[in-house]
Design goal:
- The N terminus is likely disordered.
- A hairpin with a 2-residue loop joins strand 1 and strand 2.
- The protein is 75% helix and 12% strand.
- It is α+β, with helices and mostly antiparallel strands and 173 residues long.
- The protein folds into two domains: 57 residues; 85 residues.
- The termini are far apart.
- Strands 1-2-3 form a three-stranded mixed sheet.
């Protein structure tokens, strides 16, 4: 082989190698592009599936919320709950009445005791005064029958007293 043939062959060989290398790089670039496109499609598919799952979950949550609301409404408006609410209302009303009655009875007891203490003959004796529902009960000793009667009369004059149960005992106490 002559030197000129070698000179022509060398660039030819280099060209072939360069061409092969360029083809390989182009093929790699195409493969990378194809790989990127495949990865993008997979990512888009995963995002779509996630979005669909989120929409389905939101629909299910809305359905469950409606069912819960309907069940709550049905429970609250049920006859049993209405009866229970009426019972609570009556209990509170009765409790309020009892508190007022107890307060009124305590005030009556205090007023009767104070009025009896102002009487010179009755103040020296120990008279127990109890009040329930406006009925005053007097118990303990009375120095004489007139003092016993006067104690009953004094108790009757107090505002709120409906009846007097005079159980005072006449005699030395």
């Amino acid at each position: 082989m002559s030197q000129s043939n070698r000179a022509v062959e060398a660039p030819m060989h280099t060209r072939t190698v360069l061409t092969a290398a360029l083809c390989a790089l182009a093929l790699i670039a195409c493969t990378d592009r194809a790989g990127n496109e495949s990865a993008n499609r997979q990512l888009d598919s995963a995002a779509d599936k996630t979005e669909q799952a989120a929409v389905a979950a939101a629909r299910k949550a809305a359905e469950l919320a409606e069912v819960a609301r309907d069940k709550t409404r049905a429970y609250v408006t049920s006859p049993e709950v209405k009866e229970d609410a009426a019972a609570v209302k009556n209990a509170l009303k009765n409790m309020g009445t009892a508190v007022v009655s107890t307060t009124d009875d305590a005030a009556i007891t205090l007023a009767v005791s104070s009025a009896l203490a102002k009487d010179a003959e009755l103040s020296a004796t120990r008279i127990d005064v109890e009040t329930r529902g406006g009925t005053v009960r007097l118990a303990g000793p009375a120095p004489n029958a007139a003092a016993k009667a006067r104690a009953g009369d004094i108790a009757r004059t107090v505002n709120g007293v409906t009846t007097v149960d005079n159980q005072l005992v006449v005699g030395p106490g």
